[in-house]
Amino acid sequence: MKFESARFPEMTIPQRASKAPDTGLYAAALVFSAIFWLLLWYLDTGQSMIAIWERSETFAHDYLIVPISAWLIWRRRDALAALDLRPNFLVLPLLMLAGFGWLLGQLTGTGVVQQYCLVIMIPLLVWAILGNQVIRALAFPLFFLLFAVPFGEFLLPPLMEYTADFTVFALKLTGIPVYREGLFFTLPSGSWSVAEACSGLRYLIASLTVGLLYAYLTYRSFARRAIFVAAALIVPIVANWLRAYMIVMIGHLSNMKYAVGLDHLIYGWIFFGVVMAILFSIGSVWREDHVSDQSAPGALAVTPRTQTSLTAMMAATIASAAIVAAWPLAASRLDDAGPYALPALRAPPQVRGWQPVAGPLTTWRPHFLNPGARINQVYADGARRVGLYIGYYRNQRQGAELVTSSNALVNSQDRAWGNIGATRHILVINNEKISSIETKLRYQSAQLLVWHWYWVGGQYTVNPYWAKLLQAKSKLLRRGDDGAVVILYTELGIDGTDGKAAAGRLQDFANAILPAVTKSLQNAR
Fold first, then answer.
1. SS3 state at 385
2. At 87, phi and psi to the nearest 5?
3. Per-residue pLDDT, 425
4. Which one of 175, 240, 260, 398 has the largest count of C-beta atoms within 10 Å of its C-beta?
5. Do 513 and 506 touch, CB atoms closer than 8 A?
6. What is the pLDDT at residue 63?
């Protein structure tokens, strides 16, 4: 009997499969780390944005921008998983440019520039670390973050002017007599003025923000998106004009019983809400959100994900982090906080018949906050009287800056004095042309003619942006940030009819006093 050894099937011990690193998780970790690093270095800038959100109702909606952006990114997570991740080192110069812009904003105390540069660095970081496909896929959610920056207050004056123009035009068209002085106008039933709340800026910003988001989510073609966004810009402006006109009409027809108090604001928001509801109802007729994103014109063609070098992404992250940190470090070296002595500013003495006299010219005072030194002196030449105001700033900081929206000839909350118009005026002093802003101010029983301009870095200018650039240049050259506002003012008649005589007084006074003023400013510097 023959026995054969039993043969068993060969058994193989299963080996643990080597698991490749999850590139997507590593990439997300790198991006989040870079953004956290960015916010850590620019914490003060981020806090300044939040502070404006808290104190201004115009920008209260900005609290929602970051959550909305995050939600828009999250809803594209499946598409992101298939994208090819390739760091783009060519973006680093753009990141440096944004950082330099932040530095200029820091040196000049221009918060909105700092805030925009901070926010724009977020998509630039994503672009540098993850590459072109990702930034194309997330372009709208990332750049939508720019709406978190409280911006647009520079539009207040023109919007207020246009609102007054339309309201007066519509009232005259209705057959109601109206007398206008700047933003103030009088009807037989009472007086009105266009305040900041009447500008429609709040409506415009809210409409544009919501309109862009709606167009992105609802439409796929560029043409429909562009048309709806244009409508979201135009409709609130025109609606605000109609709102202002109807409020004045309600007050006029009710003999100033209605639409002059709290109901004024309530009516405005109800009217705006109705107009926006109509706009979005009409826009929904042509909606395309049932169409796939991939069928939209210009949709991203996704290629199969290839093996991405984690080393390259890490190198892009480290390079970006170094660029991000460089600018606050540079600012700490250039932005020397002192201590500095207060500027010694002296009022010019008697010159060419103009001599200083005691007492104020009027009750008006320029609304320039916290200068380091100030002159407010009245000069007389016989019966002619002119006022000189100089506000001198050194070691500028928030709340004590020369060029800022808080500084103005008249405080927007001032119930006594009002600005009734401003134009550019050219002074000729010793054959040298100096630009100034000529403004008329009104009071119940008086009017003033005012000329003013800035002095920064030894130069005179009326352009606030150029003044900021001169300030940045001076600080980059380690020459400090000294600057001043120079204001000349004189009385007009009650009806403002002696404008030529008032302008002649200011011109004669400027001819006599300006060389001494320039010397005083140079000595203080």
1. strand
2. -55, 145
3. 86
4. 240
5. no
6. 92
pLDDT in tens, 120-165: 999 999 999 999 999 999 999 999 999 999 988 888 888 988 999 9
Q: Is the Cβ–Cβ distance between 499 and 507 less than 8 Å? A: no
The DSSP line for 156-213 is HHHHHHHHHHHHHHHHHHHT---EEETTEEEETTEEEE--GGGS-HHHHHHHHHHHHH
Distance (Å) of CA 464 to CA 88, 192, 454: 37, 30, 8
Amino acid at 54: E
Identify the bridge partners of residue 367 per DSSP, sorted by sequence position.
Answer: 408
pLDDT of residue 146: 94
pLDDT tens, residue by residue, 236-251: 999 889 888 888 888 8
- Domain extents in the chain: 23-151+307-334, 154-286, 355-524
Q: 417: which residues sit within 8 A by CB, 6+ positions away?
A: 364, 410, 441, 442, 443
Residue 26 CB partners (closer than 8 Å, separation 6+): 310, 313
Asked if residue 14 has a cis previous peptide bond (ω within 30° of 0), the answer is: no
Q: Are 204 and 147 in contact (CB under 8 A)?
A: no
**CA–CA gap between residue 148 and residue 442 (Å, rounded):** 37
Q: How far apart are CA 522 and CA 390, in angstroms?
A: 13
Residue 4: exposure state from Cβ atoms within 10 A (0-12, 13-18, ≥19):
exposed
H/E stretch holding 489 reads strand 483-492
Beta-strand pair 373-381/384-393: antiparallel
- Contact, 483 vs 454, CB < 8 A? yes
Burial of residue 376 (CB within 10 Å: 0-12, 13-18, 19+) is middle
Distance (Å, whole) CA 71 – CA 16: 38
Q: Tokens 């309201």 belong to which residue? A: 167
CA distances from 399 to 56, 110, 392 (A): 16, 12, 14
Residue with tokens 């000189």: 388
pLDDT at 295: 43
* Structure-block tokens of residue 201: 């800026």
Q: Are strands 190-193 and 459-461 parallel, antiparallel or unpaired?
A: unpaired
**Radius of gyration of the chain measured on its C-alpha atoms:** 31
> Whole-angstrom Cα distance, residue 18 to residue 34?
29
